[in-house]
TrEMBL record:
This is Aconitate hydratase. The keyword Iron applies. GO terms for biological process: tricarboxylic acid cycle. Residues 7-407 form the Aconitase/3-isopropylmalate dehydratase large subunit alpha/beta/alpha domain. GO terms for molecular function: 4 iron, 4 sulfur cluster binding; aconitate hydratase activity; metal ion binding.
Length: 628
């Protein structure tokens, strides 16, 4: 039987265990990336491992989420990241250079290699044919130190693309259509592998849009073949020597196949709430909007913003709204300057900001009370744009640009088609700094707070249920990103005050008062970002276990890594305020939790043997040190 691309790349990288679907393997990681909001912690964790230097083939420390330095603490974070990367042997991408995922596929991604990134949209590099996986900072710290990344061998969902896209529809509409079909849980435990004749009609940036937002299906990652189009892209980036062909064998076995005819894809919009709350544009056309944002790691590429410029050329942004353009990288910005797009956009009334995450993470351009912001980003949960009162809808660049002209959601097919001319990429790595080694002194501000040592798990966990939440709780619900927290990522005592702040303002204070306790959730608890702060901060508040019906992959791993046990049970049986007690001396046996001393219910978990050892040791850092 032939192999899928996923199987080929994973098998070539198995360092520990046997490749069998559903079993745990230790994966050899070639490349690692960190960014400035998860990176401060990841680098502190790397330091805590006591290693001399980065052992992975390549590590890049990016600065993108708080690249505007909106607080002095963020600027301090940047200097810490720059000096620690240089000291331990990683490349540093300076603020203003762009978003990590966009930059990584432009400048470093290599088909057939593995990438582990401390950001959930790391699968973007799957557009180049990499196995690129998002993980928490501790896992990335261990991988930077040359350790394996442990994961359960995923199933492979083949997505068979046929036909080609019509005017008005884009790669974003492809992934929104897939999300509508399989939902935000449909990719859990799977790799989405693209195949079929339609693949060759998509450029690498279009593929990257699709693999980027595959993260929103809960998939482990997404991957495209590496073909002539990939070679052409790498040639454009002056990196053709990094190319290698990658394709699935004839007769490769897919666990399931989803057929998508690109010629039937139409423009789509994900309305506020969840990325799978997707409607054909005609059903929501006419909805008034207050703001349009074009950019992010999903649609911050040159072609997307160029298309928006062509749509807006000679027209005017509706005076009742604002349009913000945020190029994904400095390369994109330089190209938009060269071809006059920036002129066209500014003349139309758009505002252009520095390449980076910015508004996507709620740094600037925070939507006002009840406002609807139409964005080309990938997430639209409540609170995502930096305020719990703003609402976000997701779409591609064409819908966004057309809607900016009218001040309401518009079907771009009503406008004359625009077409891109052939172009060359501008390659200039001025803001990519090579490491200088040990002579570089690491700069730390008081806001960079050293990690506490992890201590072994006690035999019994007891305490109160301090919050009970419903299904689909995202990491943004647990620990919101945005202006109130982004500068505190390296300061756990301070950032922990914001845990569940949008859901229950008294949560953190109650945790302190009660000396910790438990969280109870529903299905898919912890979906979304790789932010390990959504586990570290509750731990800081004394949370020692989360009881839920199911967990999202990265958050599940993060809980284990910080020493919180993710238990699975029927949480309908537990209420906020209940007192729980559970004996955890033998996590391999039958387990039950006692509720208020009056009844007990069975609980289970999805911990592997290794995970059990990690939680017993108190977390991944303690475990790794113990093993070394
Ligand atoms: C996100 O898009 O939610 C983020 C901000 O990039 C996060 C990382 C973080 O919280 O720093 C992610 O996707 O992992
Ligand atoms: Fe940055 Fe937004 Fe992409 Fe996260 S989703 S990496 S915040 S651009």
């Amino acid at each position: 039987m032939g192999s899928t691309i996923t199987e080929k790349v994973l098998k070539e990288h198995v360092g520990d265990g046997t490749y069998r679907v559903g079993e745990e393997i230790g994966l050899i990681i070639d490349q690692c990336l960190t960014q400035d909001s998860t990176g401060t912690m990841a680098w502190l964790e790397f330091e805590a491992l006591g290693l001399d230097e980065v052992k992975a083939k390549l590590a890049v420390s990016y600065c993108d989420h708080t690249s505007l330095g909106f607080k002095g603490e963020s600027t301090d974070d940047h200097y810490f990241l720059q000096t620690i990367a240089s000291h331990f042997g990683a490349i540093y991408s300076k603020p203003g250079n762009g978003v990590c995922h966009q930059l990584h596929y432009e400048r470093f991604g290599v088909p057939g290699e593995t990438l582990l990134g401390a950001d959930s949209h790391t699968p973007t590099c799957g557009g180049l044919g990499m196995i690129a996986i998002g993980a928490g900072g501790m896992d990335v710290a261990v991988a930077m130190g040359g350790g394996y990344f442990y994961l359960t061998v995923p199933e492979v969902l083949g997505i068979n693309l046929t036909g080609s896209l019509n005017w008005g529809s884009s790669a974003k509409d492809v992934i929104l259509t897939i999300l509508k079909q399989i939902s935000v849980k449909g990719g859990v435990g799977k790799v989405l592998e693209y195949m079929g004749n339609g693949v060759k009609t998509l450029s690498v940036p279009e593929r990257a849009t699709i693999t980027n937002m595959g993260a929103e299906t809960g998939a482990t990652t997404s991957i495209f073949p590496s073909d002539e189009i990939t070679l052409e892209f790498l040639r454009g980036q002056r990196r053709d020597s990094d190319w290698k062909e990658l394709k699935a064998d004839d007769g490769a076995h897919y666990d399931d196949i989803l057929d998508i005819d690109l010629s039937e894809i139409t423009p789509q919009v994900a309305m506020p709430g969840m990325p799978d709350n997707v409607y054909p544009v005609e059903e929501v056309a006419g909805t008034p909007i207050d703001q349009v944002f074009i950019g992010s790691c999903t649609n911050g590429g040159y072609a997307d913003i160029r298309k928006a410029a062509l749509i807006l050329q000679g027209k005017r942004v509706d005076p009742s709204i604002e349009l913000i353009i945020s190029p994904g990288s400095r390369q994109v910005l330089q190209m938009l300057i060269r071809d006059g797009s920036l002129d066209a956009l500014i003349n139309a009334g758009a505002r252009v900001i520095d390449p980076g995450c910015n508004a996507c993470i709620g740094i600037g351009f925070v939507p006002g009370y009840g406002h609807l912001s139409l964005r080309t980003v990938n997430r639209n949960w409540a609170g995502r744009g930096g305020s719990k009162f703003g609402r976000i809808a997701l779409c591609g660049a064409e819908v966004a640009a057309a809607s900016a002209i009218k001040g309401k959601i518009v079907d771009p097919r009503e406008l004359d088609p625009v077409k891109l001319d052939p172009f060359d990429y501008i390659v200039d790595d001025l803001l990519m700094l090579k490491p200088q080694g040990k002579q570089v002194e690491i700069r730390r501000s008081p806001n960079i707070v050293k990690l506490k040592q992890q201590v072994p798990l006690p035999d019994k966990l007891e305490g109160e249920v301090l919050i009970k939440v419903g299904d689909g709780i995202s990491t943004d619900d647990i620990l919101p990103a945005g202006p109130s927290t982004q500068h505190l990522r390296s300061n756990l005592p301070e950032i922990s005050k914001f845990v569940f702040i949008y859901k229950d303002e008294t949560f953190a204070a109650r945790c302190r008062e009660k000396n910790g306790g438990f969280i109870v959730g529903g299905e898919n608890y912890g979906q979304g970002s790789s932010r390990e702060h959504a586990a570290l901060a509750p731990f800081e508040l004394g949370i020692r276990a989360v009881f839920a019906k199911s967990f999202a992959r990265i958050h599940h791993a993060n809980l284990i890594n910080v020493g919180i046990i993710p238990f699975v049970c029927d949480t309908d049986e537990i209420e906020q305020g209940d007192r729980l007690s559970i004996d955890v001396t033998d996590l391999r046996g039958d387990l039950e939790v006692s509720i208020n001393g009056s009844k007990s219910i069975p609980v289970s978990h999805n911990l592997s043997e290794r995970d059990i050892e990690i939680v017993k040791a108190g977390g991944l850092l303690a475990y790794t040190k113990m093993k070394n």
